[in-house]
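Researcher: Next sequence.
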Amino acid sequence: MKITDGVIKAIVAHGRQEMPNEACGYLAEQDGVIVRHYALTNLDKAADHYTMEPREQFAAIKDMRGRKLKLAAVYHSHPETPARPSAEDIRLAYDPEISYLIVSLAGPEPVVKSFKIANNTVQPEEITIVMEEEPMRIKADAVKNCRGVGCPMNLVHTKVGLAALQPGQILEVILDDGPPVTNVPASASREGHKVLAQNRLADGAWSVLLEKG
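Model: Next structure:
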């Protein structure tokens, strides 16, 4: 599996945002590289299993088709257990052609692993992280500088910035390290926007690029 570093950061952030429950979603690829994630709602709101929201699933697949992307993987988080498929994960693995990616948040650092699952057989899959080339050259239509702004006001500023844009336009939000760079992208994703990139700046802050949904 090839996946961009921005997508890895985004799904780890989604997993942290949903703790203590499991997070779940889809991953889409273009030219053999996973370039986009779709954070979906876990209807079960549980720490050891998940059920995706059907309407969100349909909307995600429709968006992929519109962007000429292909469904490549299902991802979910394990808040308290290692990054390996549970018995339930194996039982519910419905498509042997796609990958199943697990984000473990049980330790001090996140662990991300991928697997192919077919006929109740689990095969680990190597992950190659592709660094996004010159991500800061993505032109933002607007910028919100939230350095020094804590939650929930940074969420408010982000919503105001997105509200002023048209669908498809891009907002760059500058956030402090820590909870802001976890909470703001996850909140925006849940509201239907896309996290295009998360990049650390020289002063330790983060640049987050959000595409209005």
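Model: The mean pLDDT is 91. The longest helix spans residues 5-18.
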